[in-house]
Give the backbone structure.
Amino acid sequence: MSAAKKLAPWQLRERFAAGLSAMYGGEVPAYPTLVQISTEVNGEYVQRHPDAERLGSFDRVTAERHGAIRVGTPAELAAVAELFGAFGMVPVGYYDLREATSPVPVVSTAFRPVAADELARNPFRVFTSMLALRDARFFEADLRARVQTFLARRQLFDPALIADARVIAADGGCPAGEADAFVGRAVAAFALSRDPIDKSWYDELSRISAVAADIAGLSSTHINHLTPRVLDIDELYRRMTARGIAMIDAIQGPPRTDGPAVLLRQTSFRALAEPRQFRCDDGSVVEGTVRVRFGEVEARGVALTRKGRERYDAAMATDDPAAVWDEYFPSTDAEMAAQGLAYYRGGDPAKPVVYEDFLPTSAAGIFRSNLDRDASTCDADDNSGYSMDWMAGAIGRHIHDPYALYEAQETAA
Ligand code: OOG
Ligand code: NI
């Protein structure tokens, strides 16, 4: 087979992101509205701001999405890693959402491309959370054992799909004629299943934690949101609200300022309840609803160095970050670069390195804003041992350090 007949991982990733977007758009009506308004806002923003493309070309930004999925076990997370490997997406960063002010019983990583040229071609990323089942503060022994039994019996992905993904990752691409079928099977694995849900099991888990019910109450996983990127998130928030879509109270992450946009600002809205069938203990099937898919949008800024991130965390710990922002951050990219607070390619303040990752506080906020209540916890000790090293060992892969990746982008110039 000639090299020209092979599709590279980035081409598969582009089709995967587009396929998920089409699937999600067909099932979650608010999503196409969100994409349409995001595209409008981006178009208008580019017209008015000559330097709008410094944080990514209009084409990249308008096609850009991130998704989120949740899985139950290390083995399921390892399977996700194998599947995403075919799309050139590798695990980056470790987020412990149990440590948030309102804890969520998951530990997470993000699968994404890491090389600058790969990001420029298509930066699709998936925030991937694993249920923190070993943490006794959330799961007592009896429940943990029953959840484990349930999870051990289900299969999120067809083994043949994972086997194909492994071959594609090893070969660095896929024969063109096989690409659509492969991508189609991968997309289908993330649809919200129509299989009847075991009612008493789902209800029992829901009483303990909505996250546990969403992850371990169903027999499959699903994309729970797909997030377009927007160049002016405040304007998008106004337009969505004007259309009668109830957004969460705030935009999460850094406040709007006149200086350089840093890190990541996000906001979300709750999706509608979706009809699904539930199977009762007597075998009868009843109609019900699940409310597990929602909408989110984000704006990305420059990546901060560790020093910049410490400043950010300190500013965010104050009562009113917007009011004190200029005590923590200078107002120009030149000063940001000179003070070593943010990454710029070749150190040139006209060339910011875009933040490609997530923020734990925002992530926990996004989770919570879409739940009816918090997880109940008890006074037990956390003996789980979860950490980035634990996760890397559990999935048998290196988990990239985001700072090392940003440094490499800075010096690659
Ligand atoms: C993931 C929430 C985190 C983000 O953008 O911070 C996230 C989830 O709800 O599963 O997607
Ligand atoms: Ni998200």
Notes: The longest strand covers residues 65-71. The pocket of 2-oxoadipic acid (ligand 1) is lined by residues 68, 70, 127, 129, 224, 266, 296, 358, 362-363, 366-367 (CB under 6 Å).
